[in-house]
Amino acid sequence: MAATGGQLGANKLRVDHTGTPVVLTVGAVADGELLQRSGTTVVGIASGSVGGGSHYDTIVPDDYALPSAALAAGHTNIWVRSGSYTETSAIPVTTTTTIDCEDPATVSIDFSTNANTGFHVTPTFYRAGTISILAGSNQVTGSGTSFTSFTTSHVLLLDGVLYGIQTISSNTLMYLTSGYRSPNNLTGYAHWAVIPRVVFSINNCTITGRSGSFPGGLGTLVLSGAVQVNVDNVRFVLPTATTYTQHIYFDGPVAQANIRNCSFVGGSVQVDITPTASGDTYMLGQKNFEGCRFLGAADYAIDLDDLPDYYSPAAVLRVENCVFTACTNSIFWKGYGRFLLNDSSFVDCTNALDIRDNSSLTDGSTIRVSNCTFQSNTRGLLVDGTGFKRLDIAGCTFVDCTNCVFASNTAGEIIRLRGCDFNEANSNIFATTGSAPITFSLHDCQFVQATDFGAPCAFFACHFHADAYFGGDNTLVTGCFFVTQAGFGGVNSSILSSEVRSVAANDYGIIAYNSADGFQCVGNRVVNSASTSTCILIDATSGGPSNIKVASNVLVLNSGASIENTAAVALNNDGDNLTV
């Protein structure tokens, strides 16, 4: 409202709104408050309470018909009321900007009518050349750099840490406001970026992307060169389900991206963190996804591919409390830093979590998956190739998966599982292929259905509710509990200090098959509850295994046999098994 008549008398204002003079009554207004009209009364409200918590410098559509028009006019703190807004060109954002909308159910920003449209948060950043810094020093020396291209208002993003710039002496010398936070010197380092202090936030709206084939580097929300990006309660949709649209595309370094309570529907790649050239610094910093929903990604829900060939513990992808449904690849990770996946669900996906080769890594990467549910997926976890340091899986549940964990073409990496439940209808718990199978280490896990373990595994304090067959070489089972049978076919396998109960009629408690050379069965307790069952069987199908040790076991008989040695091989038991 624009005042046209000034004061008309006691607590009266005449204002011009839509061309017709209106007389309003002014209520209580304190110094520093804003004016808010309600009918014919104007009252004071505290600064910062407009639109639910922020002091906005313009309102769409009251002041401008479209968000793009408000941004073009220089506004950076925008409130968008309920309505449909059709944008026909890309909206560049190069300064700190907040776009708060009224409600995702009633605010629609539509980019579907034209190519190359969307919010392009792409302020200029710098990263040419290499830099060197001594541990604790604030002096940065460059080679092939152009430090004078930016100013001290920028910040240096280095392995996920932001450093202020104190002075710039030349194209190859500058000083930071604090020392380099590392115990080691940095020499000839290429994975750095100088970015402006730009923060972009958008909240509470539905954004429709363009239907059609986007070339690489385009998307509904394109992000690069920002200190922080906040996207909260935004629904990303498409006009059709057969498009190659990136809802969010990271096109450069972002120190921290917080994507919260958003939904992504349809498209080929929903969130793309894939550089256009190998070795770019696109994944510098943290990417946080919290409370998001991903539905029907034709290729990838979150795609991290062809990232820089180095390891940085400060490069973090964090996914928490998210749901992935009917996606071909929910998360495709070929990264170089830390990956933390917590409290999320994967339902009816081809590959719920796809971890791929990045064998050029020298230090490896750490991947932690905790408290997740994998249900009705072709593969719960696909591990294909080498390059990660450690994959830790804790507190997860696998239900009705064709392969819970599928590993191929690996080179001796270790997958650790702790406190996981493998429930009914999983076809394979672990499946492996390739010349160097992966090793699984399992603690306190539970297996409900009959299971074949073809990979080398180590089991500690696990619980098996149905028959288990261990076919991998060098398998170790210790401190475990079996309701029924435990069979071994791999070379140099062992079962130690475990208990096998309720051996069924005409069945066996512990079996060493003919291929189980070097098998050791020591310190176990086997309870035989059927008169026609056997506690321990040494199989003689093809001549029997060799170098077997059966010692210090307690064999509790209802009747039937304690040890059946059909192979007639030496057991090396020293005569110390106890039958009761």
Can you walk me through this structure?
With 580 residues, the protein is mostly beta strands. The chain folds into four domains: 1-47, no CATH class; 130-195; 273-449; 450-580, no CATH class. The chain contains one helix and 63 strands. The strands form five sheets. It has a 34-stranded parallel beta sheet that branches. Strands 9-12-21-23-26-29-32-35-38-41-44 form an eleven-stranded parallel beta sheet. A hairpin with a 2-residue loop joins strand 16 and strand 17. The chain is elongated, with a radius of gyration of 32 Å. The protein starts with a strand and ends with a strand. The model is unreliable at 1-18, 47-53 and 213-217 (pLDDT under 50).
Quick tags:
disordered N terminus, elongated, 4 domains, 34-stranded parallel β-sheet, 1 helix, mainly beta, 1% helix, 48% strand
Distance, first to last CA: 95 Å
Counting helices, strands and paired strands, the structural category is mainly beta
The portion of residues forming beta strands comes to over 45%
Mean pLDDT: 82
Question: Which geometry do the CA atoms define?
Answer: elongated
The rounded Rg comes to: 32 Å
Spans of at least 5 consecutive residues with low confidence: 1-18, 47-53, 213-217
Largest sheet: 34 strands, parallel
Percentage of helical residues?
A: under 10%
Number of domain modules: 4
Number of helices: 1
Please count the beta strands (DSSP E, at least 2 residues each).
Answer: 63
In short:
With 580 residues, the protein is mainly β. The protein is 1% helix and 48% strand.
Please render the helix and strand layout as text:
Layout: E1 2-9, E2 12-17, E3 20-26, E4 34-38, E5 41-45, E6 58-60, H1 67-72, E7 77-80, E8 83-86, E9 91-93, E10 97-101, E11 107-110, E12 119-121, E13 130-133, E14 139-143, E15 155-158, E16 161-170, E17 173-176, E18 186-189, E19 192-195, E20 199-208, E21 221-223, E22 226-237, E23 248-250, E24 254-260, E25 263-265, E26 269-272, E27 286-290, E28 293-295, E29 300-304, E30 316-320, E31 323-325, E32 329-333, E33 338-342, E34 345-347, E35 351-356, E36 366-370, E37 373-375, E38 379-384, E39 390-394, E40 397-399, E41 403-408, E42 414-418, E43 421-422, E44 428-433, E45 439-443, E46 446-447, E47 451-453, E48 457-460, E49 463-464, E50 468-470, E51 476-478, E52 481-482, E53 486-488, E54 494-496, E55 499-500, E56 508-512, E57 520-522, E58 525-528, E59 534-538, E60 549-551, E61 554-557, E62 561-565, E63 578-579
